[in-house]
Design brief:
Helix content: over 70%
Largest sheet: none
Shape: globular
Radius of gyration: 24 Å
Strand content: under 5%
Distance between the termini: 11 Å
Order of helices and strands: HHHHHHHHHHHHHH
Structural class: mainly alpha
Number of helices: 14
Oligomer: single chain
Amino acid sequence: MGYLIRRLVLFVAALLGLSLLVFVTLRILPGDVASVMAGTNATPARVAALRSQMGLDRSYPQQYADWLLGLMHGNMGVSAISGRSVSSQVGSHAAITMPLIVLSLIVALGVGVPLGCQAVLAANSRVRGVLHILAIVGGAVPALWGGLLLIMLFGRGIGLVGILPSQGFPDAGWRNPVAALASLILPAIATGLVAGAAIMRYTRACLISMEDSDAVAMAMACGMTRRQAMLGVGLRLSAAQLVSVAGLTFAQMVTGVMVVESLFNLPGLGAMLIGDVGNRDLVAVQSELFLLAAFFLLLGVLVDMLHHALDPRLGGQSEERG
């Protein structure tokens, strides 16, 4: 409980520091949303009226306090360009990006962990060598290049096989779950295979490090085969490390998926953020950046706590420090 409280206190402190960093950084950048909204032929009075309407004429401490209080109450403000609430805008775009990230992680784990184990346990040395080379090459291939290759192979209307949609998201959204899910398959594979190569390398390294351990030797002495001992004991003891790697991979997917979204023309968080930055929509951008960074912080806390739960030695060290 003491460890949990310390982590939560650090998380809150990091969120406050993060909010201040986002606020100050956006105020330093050039550009004025009031000037953009008013147009090139607007008079200074018109620009000043818009600045007053959006609260940009107040002091920076007042703007920061109002924004922070709004975040604490779940109010992220209203977009100066679209007129929609930022929370609803983020929610509609996240309904595309977050399922895509989850699907990509499923692909990465489904490819990386089994093939990483096989790269160590395969009886044929050539198979092990080929899998090792695939892990290295897969990690070196950019997700954009892999996505383009998938479009050329499986994109409906342009691919050699042409069985899956490769552009856009259905207008009905998740009200048509089959079409929505089909539009995410190719980008999920493009992102997941690259991440799966990294997980495959880490899984292979973890099992190799456990190969000569006392735990595996004891399991084999008790009658287990080498494969049973490595999978039942070695892989389980490596679970904490693999969880950390999966957490880092999941965090990297957030940025990677946003890049892949542009290739597949998906209106996700990446397209939203790029559009708001281009329009100098200060209110929307600062809330969106804060949410993305807060997601990274929260993911780090969850991975750290799960790692703490899986590795009993960390619990003992925390109690000694307490």
